[in-house]
Design the sequence.
């Protein structure tokens, strides 16, 4: 249970941090890169922690996924969600290809 709680808390905090940002341009709207297009963020997770994140008929679902969708919509970002294992996530961080899990 501690592992599930820890993963849920970490994912929540990372989603909140990903949604936060600063802008030097006051006219620039949140979640955009200065154009009318929304900025797309890559989000990775491991789908092995029901009810937080799990696969249902090949689709990622759960509390964390619903929370992510709500935060990203409010922040004005599009996102690409990918299911990978912890080893791959940590390796990506080490190689500086991924900043947030």
Sequence:
């Amino acid at each position: 249970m501690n592992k599930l709680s820890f993963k849920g808390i970490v994912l929540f905090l990372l989603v909140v941090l990903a949604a936060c940002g600063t802008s030097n341009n006051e006219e620039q709207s949140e979640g955009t890169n200065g154009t009318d297009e929304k900025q797309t963020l890559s989000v990775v997770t491991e789908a092995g922690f029901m009810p937080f994140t799990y696969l249902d008929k090949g689709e990622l679902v759960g509390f964390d996924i619903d929370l992510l969708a709500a935060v990203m919509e409010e922040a004005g970002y599009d996102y690409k969600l990918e299911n990978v294992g912890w080893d791959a996530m940590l390796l990506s961080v080490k190689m500086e290809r991924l900043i947030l899990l």
The first helix runs from residue 2 to 19. The helical segments are 2-19, 63-75, 86-94. The first strand starts at residue 40 and ends at 45. Strands lie at 40-45, 48-49, 53-56, 59-61, 78-83.
